[in-house]
Amino acid sequence: MKNRNDSTMYRFNYYKSHYWDGVDFKDGRTIRNQFFDSRLKKYFEQIVNQLGPDTVANEIDKILSQCEPGSELFNFLFVHFMVEYENPKLVGFDKVFVMLVDKYIRTGKSGKIYDEKTTMKIIEKADIIKPLLIGSVAPDLYMIDTVNAKIVNKMGFDTASTSESVTKLYYKNMDKLAPLYKTLSSVQAKYIVLVFWDVDCSHCITEIPKLLEIYHDLRKTVDVKVFSVYTVYEFDKWRKYIIDKKLDFINVYDPVHINNIKTKYDIFSTPKVYLLDKNKIIKSKHMPVEKISDLIKAFEEEEKAKKPK
């Protein structure tokens, strides 16, 4: 006899597998059906998205493979999925966007939907996102903390105004700089909160004190550290804020300009938050700081459940 959960899953799978019965993806008239848009939206938002990004990617692939390549319906669906998953509502679903770029745009299977310039921009975007997908090892950062910042500033980095002058200073002081770096890879903790922020960002001014409070509460029971990256270069203003707010994070910035932080971590606004495990694997990202405690507790419970009883 099937239990209730088995019965519910059977009904769900049956509904999902028969959802598109009667829809011909090779028929161009399908796109003009007044119910098609809402049906498409319902399928992904209410049925497929809950199964995770890999399932979503497979479902998109399945649907696109039924369309005539280059047809109006194929083009409509492809652009719809690209827009939907480039900046997805759900964390981790940017993986779908990367799949679409890798499988369709890089290979030419998407046809000539986009011109050459737009295609290159899309590929560049996917190349930025790919190393930041959940499950990837976070790209390393070579940063300078508040103590070593004074040494770096004396080298002239604080007054260098062009990329050429910064480059010259870097090569001139390369050996002296090496022991001053504080790297992300060197941080030892079970969980690392990686946050990018700016003293003059109004949202950061609200969120960073919240993060401080959460950090102090979490570290009573969990091995956690905050790798706090200042995204601008105004040292005095940054240091004053750290002292005034008593930010006992690992406070760092990049006066040497070697990390290309904004591109490396896709920072188009601040604050930007990543949660890493002890191996620097990205466990979650782009979450409000108040969600960090719940996420860590969930990972702790998951780990506990896996341990043999």
Short description:
By secondary structure, this protein is of the alpha/beta class.
What does this protein look like?
The chain has 309 residues and is α/β, with parallel strands linked by helices. It folds into two domains: 4-132; 142-306, 3-Layer(aba) Sandwich (Glutaredoxin), CATH 3.40.30.10. 49% of the residues lie in helices and 11% in strands. It is built from 13 helices and seven strands. Strands 2-1-5-4-3-6-7 form a seven-stranded mixed β-sheet. Helix 10 (202-218) links the parallel strand 3 and strand 4. Helix 4 runs antiparallel to helix 5 (94-105) and helix 5 packs across helix 6. It is globular. The two termini are 29 Å apart.
Describe the secondary structure blueprint for this structure.
Layout: H1 4-17, H2 36-48, H3 53-66, H4 72-86, H5 94-105, H6 116-129, E1 142-145, H7 146-154, H8 163-172, H9 174-177, E2 182-183, E3 191-197, H10 202-218, E4 224-230, H11 235-245, E5 250-253, H12 261-264, E6 272-277, E7 282-285, H13 292-306
Helix pairs in contact: 3-5, 4-5, 5-6
